[in-house]
Amino acid sequence: MNWQALRTIFQHEMARFWRTPWESLASPVVSTVLYFVVFGAAIGGRIQSVEGISYGAFIVPGLIMLTVLQQSIANASFGIFVPKFAGTIYEILAAPVSFIEVVLGYVGAAALKSVIIAVVIYLTALFFVDLPVAHPVWALAFLILTAFSFSLFGFLLGIWAKDWQQVQFIPLMVVTPLVFLGGAFYSASMLPPFWEGVARLNPVLYLVSGFRWSFFGQADVPVAASLLAVAAFLGLGVGAVWFIFRTGWRLRA
Amino acid sequence: MPPIIEVSDLSKTYASGTAALSGVTLDIREGEILALLGPNGAGKTTFISILCGLVKPTGGAARVGGHDIVRDYRAARALIGLVPQEIAVEPFETVMNTLRFSRGLFGRKPDDAHLEKVLNSLTLWDKRDARLNELSGGMKRRVLIGKALSHGPRVLFLDEPTAGVDVNLRREMWAVVRDLRAEGVTIILTTHYLEEAEEMADRIGIIDKGRLLLLQDTAKLMHEFGRKRLIVELAAPLAALPAALAGHGLTLSADGTHVRYDYDTRADRSGIARLLAGFAEAGIGVRDLETEQSSLEEVFLRLVEEGA
Ligand SMILES: Nc1ncnc2c1ncn2[C@@H]1O[C@H](COP(=O)(O)OP(=O)(O)OP(=O)(O)O)[C@@H](O)[C@H]1O
Ligand SMILES: [Mg+2]
């Protein structure tokens, strides 16, 4: 294990985040506020409460998950796609490192950024609603594992993508719909039975549900199923990355 | 001393089917400057890329410092610095930071004093806080050299270091390379220019179509390239060369109309003036003169035939 290299990559990626703190943090905060205005104030005025929780508070975990998924994928995919695109990746490929240092460095940094943004969103939400966290340790665990898993997917996306369109296409066409349909802004139990069944096929539902449970102690699906889903995402991502570095797929000719 | 790099039967066929490298075998001596010369697409970059870990070989093996480049890649790569053919830098990074990053990637502890030395040797110290997108192309290339040297490699690969570099900078770069060699760093560089290889290298390898055609001490190779041939067309055919002209090593053509004279352009005197004076003294009329230089291919063939 080349710890120095791991630290170097990690710090290098985090430096990009702090170099433009405004862009890094302001945009998630602004969109959170917008969601509160639209969902909390406009729609929340009619829905009032979901399963005994004020609608404004109810949407926060889903909102955080939405942002964490988007930011993790975006950060990690750009983090590796930019060097690939610009050609600077040669240095990483020629360095005495294995996929472990590279992945932990890039993915770890992308995940940490998402977690920081999640915390900032949570703090922003506190200005609007009363939001106690029932199981803080679980909340943090779900947050970190989700951020890491989806940063892994972002990393894979960045390696797979051959152009900028592809980097932007997947988050837009796959992830955002999955999150919206994953019960970010409603409870799956509010859906008609057929659609509830469909929603349960959406893996993101399990993440949102588990995360929401850690806030309110209530969930759409059993917490164990949510944990299993997170573990599955993580396992899938790690396996795919391991395979890529073993074979050099899209990285080494 | 064992060779610092041992390459045996190294081959690469890309997924596209291009056989870019076909069974290259060579040893590179510690501390030497080896120039790889060859036309576009010869396989020079492929060769370097395999040794550095950017491209996977499809056949053969190689060791750097005794470490297999595939099985023991960490130890092998730790010894290597690479300056790629294409300039690729992070535009918003500063010169100093990009060197720090490279050093860290190779697992070395931060050492700004070493980086200062490297930047000084490349006359980049003044630019240490400049962003890379503010630098000229030649400066960027030097930054890439700096990155490659940031971790103190024992082997430095320079893939066309002087492409797009002006004459002054080229000389500066040569000076840097010589200094590195004086420190004991082994240097492998590629170039399209024979003069550059001659100027820099202890040995020259010629690659074409993925094959190493020859590997030769520079002095010996240049001697071959230095041969030139003068063809003298005579005003009237001769039955035999007059005795007065013996000793010039002349050959008369079968029909007696031409005389052939081989000489070395690198010798102090070519002997042409003396030869022509000899013709005049012997009363032999000269109609025309023509010179021929051995082509690259002829030199290849000659050297290969000589079992070099
Ligand atoms: N990634 C790749 N995929 C497929 N073919 C490749 C790849 N890289 C190089 N080649 C092919 O391999 C051959 C050797 O290329 P290489 O870049 O090694 O040549 P070179 O000697 O460095 O040439 P130049 O002097 O132009 O830099 C060429 O035919 C090239 O088209
Ligand atoms: Mg090349």
Give a description of the structure.
- The complex is a heterodimer of chains A (253) and B (308).
- Chain A is mostly helical and 253 residues long.
- Chain A has one domain (3-247).
- Chain A contains ten helices and two strands, in the order H-H-E-E-H-H-H-H-H-H-H-H.
- Chain A has helices at 3-19, 21-47, 55-86, 90-93, 99-125, 136-160, 164-180, 193-199, 203-216, 223-247, and strands at 49-50, 53-54.
- Chain A has a two-stranded antiparallel ribbon with strand order 1-2.
- In chain A, helix 3 crosses helix 9 and helix 6 (136-160) runs parallel beside helix 10 (223-247).
- Chain B contains ten helices and 14 strands.
- Chain B has 308 residues and is an alpha/beta fold.
- The A-B interface holds A 2-5, 7-9, 12, 19, 83, 86-88, 90-98, 248, 252-253 and B 14-15, 49, 52-56, 73-78, 80, 82, 84, 86, 88-92, 100-109, 147.
- Magnesium ion is lined by residues 44-45, 85, 159 of chain B.
Short summary of the structure?
The complex is a heterodimer of chains A (253) and B (308). With 253 residues, chain A is mainly α.
CATH superfamily of the largest domain in chain B: P-loop containing nucleotide triphosphate hydrolases
Low-confidence stretches of chain B: none
Q: Total helix count of chain A? A: 10
Strand order of the biggest β-sheet of chain B: 6-7-8-3-9-10
Shape of chain A: globular
Strand segment tally of chain A = 2
Query: What share of the residues of chain B lie within helices?
Result: 25-40%
Task: Provide the CATH architecture of the largest domain in chain B.
Answer: 3-Layer(aba) Sandwich
> How confident is the prediction overall: mean pLDDT of chain B?
88
Please render the helix and strand layout as text.
The complex is a heterodimer of chains A (253) and B (308).
Chain A: H1 3-19, H2 21-47, E1 49-50, E2 53-54, H3 55-86, H4 90-93, H5 99-125, H6 136-160, H7 164-180, H8 193-199, H9 203-216, H10 223-247
Antiparallel strand pairs in A: 1-2
Helix pairs in contact in A: 1-5, 2-3, 2-5, 3-5, 3-6, 3-7, 3-9, 5-6, 6-9, 6-10, 9-10
Chain B: E1 5-13, E2 19-28, E3 33-37, H1 44-52, E4 59-64, E5 67-68, H2 73-78, E6 80-83, H3 95-105, H4 112-121, H5 137-149, E7 155-159, H6 167-182, E8 186-191, H7 194-200, E9 203-208, E10 211-217, H8 218-226, E11 227-234, E12 250-252, E13 258-264, H9 272-281, E14 286-293, H10 296-305
Bound molecules: adenosine-5'-triphosphate and magnesium ion.
